[in-house]
Amino acid sequence: MTKVLIVDDAAFIRAQLKQLLVANDFEVVGEAGNGIEALKKIRELRPDIVTLDITMPEMDGIECMQEIKKMGCNMPAIVMVSAMGQEPFVQKAILNGAKGFIVKPYKPEVVLKQLNKFRK
Q: What burial class does residue 3 get, using C-beta atoms within 10 Å of its C-beta: 0-12 exposed, 13-18 middle, 19+ buried?
């Protein structure tokens, strides 16, 4: 089963995504509220996919993605899930290694279409 780590500072978004993913046969192995927590959980849980918000306290999604890239070969597929859908943010995310970008508020079918690309 494909393992997913959900990273967002909003607990309701994490709960909403988790419910959607579990209902569609993804294994949500963990959640994090900022980039620092995410890095610890990525090392510990080795997810296949990380959904990552851009705007978070302590370490934002772009900084977190840059740190994930430094981890090397077992890098998970990173899909940004953010309200920051303006073109400069999308470009910066893609240039830093994001494999997809979902704009909040999102439609469940858009999330599933993006994440199904990385199913194991």
A: middle
